[in-house]
Specification:
Number of helices of chain A: 13
Helix content of chain A: 25-40%
Structural class of chain A: alpha/beta
Strand order of the largest sheet of chain A: 5-6-7-3-8-9
Distance between the termini of chain A: 41 Å
Helix content of chain B: 55-70%
Radius of gyration of chain B: 21 Å
Largest interface: A-B, 44 and 37 residues
Keywords (chain B): Membrane, Transmembrane, Transmembrane helix
Protein name (chain B): ABC-2 type transport system permease protein
Low-confidence stretches of chain A: 1-17, 316-355
Number of strands of chain A: 13
Structural class of chain B: mainly alpha
Low-confidence stretches of chain B: 1-10
Number of domains of chain A: 2
Mean pLDDT of chain B: 87
Shape of chain A: elongated
Number of helices of chain B: 10
Oligomer: heterodimer
Organism (chain B): Pseudonocardia oroxyli
Mean pLDDT of chain A: 80
CATH architecture of the largest domain in chain A: 3-Layer(aba) Sandwich
Pfam families (chain A): ABC_tran
Strand content of chain B: under 5%
Largest sheet of chain A: 6 strands, mixed
Organism (chain A): Pseudonocardia oroxyli
Strand order of the largest sheet of chain B: 1-2
CATH class of the largest domain in chain A: Alpha Beta
Chain lengths: 355, 282
């Protein structure tokens, strides 16, 4: 089984659309001596739902802000919907970045109206209707006329989501959309992302809820310390990640010695053994059965995103907060296959540095 | 760009109409409780001046003394008093909310993402600040005229000038209007500088402190005789020019030169704001 190859994965990403919904070319951002984003190349194909994963301080938000033109990159360039000048694409882009920003003394509806007044694609007559629709869509209809000051964290988040959905968008960028939401709210966000995907919109969603990403996303990009560790279609990444066969058997010892005889790599695991390298599956099964091993079940191991993520970001426990990572910070996925290192660890990067 | 299937949206535009942006800004400004409270307090200034005039010795010297028997002098006196500190502070407060406050609330981001171009955003914000300043001046002028009429008495609807002549009611109101416009020009300078500070920070208090500190510093500098040569460069040194409107014929020299000075300050302030906003992270 080969290791994840970032370049391979990136090619998978770029292949499937005419013009990517978003593209980063060598994007880099340095704040003082801290490298927040360290030369990221990424393409988000049109129609994809890209989950952006990474521990706190890994550069997700900075990358998103540079893609949207909110932050000027130190080097590199960003492209939105094929436009190098982001403001030309922004009317078609809805975004919720770094939490919902609204005025506390205005009601939810008034806040949205003010935001809608600045939306180029809305005619003045369409504003009240668009605001009401967006409020209903995120389930805030009942609280629309209450002041934003009195909203709960989840309601604020919902209002931010409504702001991103005021106009039918070609690209929606959601930075931690499920922050502060209860399970029902999380489900709502998942539904909305699903609807956007069905209507052909591209969605970029950053999250640390891996189950959410696995449930809603078609593509993932994994960041750590400002570098892109892996990017590509979710299914491809999961298949090429930790693979192997899981064989359910009570005869662990016999099975291991049998496989050892043909040079396969296997270890006890789960309710039997896990074969990580060796001949093709049918051959292994035949070998085991011929050796008299009782095989109850054989299936290809498809790792969950969580395992993949842990494997990609391991090395410092996934919390790059102290800035002491040396060469051990290079992720391990590249080294078990062909020995190619992937990405580069940023020395001295700190958690939560954005501004 | 190909047309995407979009219902209920307007034509392919990359910017919202300017009029709608300005209207939304004014609406936002006047929905802000502190704007309304400030305007309410400004309405009290002419009233307090009027009460003071009634209570005080009617033969006292100076501008306030001159109010006695001259209802239309009262708004000019009130504007001059307020221009010394309160009007600049109110303007600075509006400018602080305009950029630093919006950045602190995270709403600046939303405007830039809409998108509102950064230059246009400065224009909209400057307009909003100017509207607040104009509203404050208008409140003082109108309440001042009313208070002057009611409390001090109209002296048969006439205004006695410092030159000893009398003006009719219409001419008197025109003089008040002249002073109000001149004051607004000075506040535009304060507002532009405050906006520049506002674009550099996301703490609204920094803007207020800067303007307050600046006013005090200018006051100190203008009080030092050795620094006389500095006078033409200080915004505040012409701020007593309003009394010239009480002369007959009206003396425009001081008001004219201080207006030119204010426009220079405004241009520099706006220039810095635009320059900074084009680079600012939001």
């Amino acid at each position: 089984m080969t290791a994840v190859d970032v370049r391979e994965a990136a090619r998978v990403t770029s292949g499937s659309g005419p013009a990517p919904a978003a593209r980063a070319v060598g994007l880099r951002k340095v704040y003082g001596r801290t490298v927040a984003v360290d030369g990221i190349d990424l393409e988000v194909p049109t129609g994809a739902v890209l989950g952006m994963l990474g521990p706190n301080g890994s550069g997700k938000t900075t990358l998103i802000r540079m893609l949207l033109g909110l932050t000027r990159p130190t080097a590199g360039s960003a492209e939105l919907l094929g436009e190098t000048e982001q403001t030309r694409a922004l009317p078609h882009v809805g975004a919720l970045v770094e939490g919902p920003g609204f005025h506390p003394f205005l009601s939810g509806r008034e806040n949205l109206r003010r935001a809608a007044a600045a939306e180029p694609l809305l005619t003045s007559g369409a504003i009240p209707g668009a605001v009401d629709t967006a409020l209903e869509r995120v389930g805030l209809g009942h609280a629309a006329d209450r002041r934003f000051r009195g909203y709960s964290l989840g309601m604020k988040q919902r209002l931010g989501l409504a702001g991103a959905l005021l106009v039918p968008r070609r690209l929606v960028v959601l930075d931690e959309p499920t922050n502060g939401l209860d399970p029902a709210g999380t489900r709502d966000v998942r539904t909305i992302i699903g609807e956007l995907h069905e209507s052909g919109s591209t969605v970029i969603v950053s999250s640390h809820l891996l189950a959410e990403v696995e449930a809603t996303c078609t593509h993932v990009a994994v960041l750590r310390s400002g570098s892109l560790l892996a990017a590509g279609a979710l299914s491809g990444l999961l298949d090429s990640g930790i693979g192997g066969l899981e064989v359910t058997t009570p005869d662990v010892g016999l099975a291991l010695s049998t496989l050892d005889g043909v040079g396969a790599v296997a270890a006890p695991g789960g309710p039997g053994i896990v074969v990580t390298d060796g001949p093709e599956a049918p051959e292994i099964v035949a070998l085991l059965v011929r050796a008299g091993v009782a095989v109850h079940e054989v299936h290809r191991r498809r790792p969950r995103l969580e395992e993949l993520f842990a494997q990609l970001t391991e090395g410092d426990g996934g919390v790059p907060s102290i800035g002491t990572e040396g060469d051990s910070g290079v992720p391990s996925i590249g080294t078990e296959g062909d020995g190619e290192t992937i990405g580069s660890a940023t020395i001295g990067s700190e958690k939560g540095v954005r501004r | 760009m190909t047309a995407v299937a979009e219902t209920a949206v307007g034509p392919e535009r990359t910017a919202a109409p300017l009029g709608r942006l300005l209207a939304a800004e004014v609406r936002w400004v006047f929905r802000r409780p502190r704007t309304l409270i400030t305007l309410g307090l400004f309405a009290l200034i002419p009233v307090l001046v009027a009460v003071g005039v009634v209570v005080a010795d009617r033969n006292g010297p100076g501008l306030i003394g001159a109010v006695a028997g001259n209802g239309l002098v009262l708004p000019i006196a009130a504007l001059t008093l307020a221009l010394a500190l309160l009007l600049p502070l109110a303007t600075a407060m509006a400018a602080a909310d305009a950029l630093a406050g919006e950045a602190a609330h995270g709403t600046l981001r939303g405007l830039l993402l809409a998108p509102v171009s950064r230059v246009r955003l400065v224009g909209v914000k400057a307009f909003g600040v100017l509207v607040v300043a104009a509203a404050a001046v208008l409140v003082i002028a109108v309440v001042g005229v009313l208070a002057g009429m009611v409390v001090v008495g109209s002296a048969d609807g006439q205004m006695v000038t410092l030159s000893g002549t009398t003006l009719g009611f219409g001419e008197g109101v025109a003089r008040v209007g002249l002073v109000a416009v001149w004051v607004l020009g000075q506040l535009a300078a304060v507002g532009a500088v405050a906006l520049a500070v506002s674009s550099l920070t996301e703490h609204p208090l920094v803007v207020l402190a800067s303007v307050l500190g600046g006013l005090i510093a200018f006051g100190v500098l203008s009080a030092i005789p050795a620094l006389d040569w500095l006078q033409p460069w200080l915004l505040t040194s012409g701020w007593t020019a309003a009394t010239d409107a009480l002369r007959d014929p009206v003396a425009l020299d001081a008001m004219g030169s201080s207006t030119v000075r204010a426009l220079c300050y405004a241009a520099i302030g706006l220039g810095i704001t635009v320059w900074r906003m084009q680079r600012r992270d939001a």
